Amino acid sequence: MYIPPYFAVTDQDELVTFMQRHPFALLITTEDGIPTVTHLPLEVEVRGEELYLTGHLARSNPQGEALEKEPDSVLAVFQGPHAYISSSWYAKPSVPTWNYMAVHAYGKAKLISSPEEIEYRMRDLLAKYEQSQEQPVTWVTVPAQMMSGLLAGILCFEIKLERVEGKYKLSQNRSSEDRAAIIAKLEAGGEQEQSVAAAMRILEESRANQVFTKTSR
């Protein structure tokens, strides 16, 4: 990912938190020069000094074959809010652009074969995403035969991360006057625009491009 220095996110806690807040990612593998992409949620795990991503996909998904071969490298792309920035908002003539937040995570994948570990991970995933529902689905409320069939139809995997890159392109290269104007315009927009504006406001008072693990100046 092309990252000019003023957009770079280097704090590991910030990168981990970003991936946790935006878990729906793109998993990208390449075989014989042809890229394959799956849209799926990924969990981030910190194991001592190492970072891992875990997830699952349908056994019938052709990308599973690539993961079974333990590819040299896979890429997971996490994206946050983004918004169009009109140059009409600037104090001086310029060109339009797009503000966005993204993290790219690179590593080596391997399949998880233990039935006990697969069930444990799926239990945790169900509990995590159902806990905020009015009538949460629990593991025991799903018929055992149905759950057994579902587990048989998926491949679980983990990715040991080797490199994580973050980029918050939030007008850090513009003047304070321009940034204030951009924030005001975005705050008058929709949910995506307002989320970008909120992140920009936090950056005005943080260091090292930290939005989720802000450190005051």
UniProtKB/TrEMBL annotation:
Gene3D superfamilies: Electron Transport, Fmn-binding Protein, Chain A (2.30.110.10)
Family annotation (PANTHER family): PROTEASE SYNTHASE AND SPORULATION PROTEIN PAI 2
Protein name: FMN-binding negative transcriptional regulator
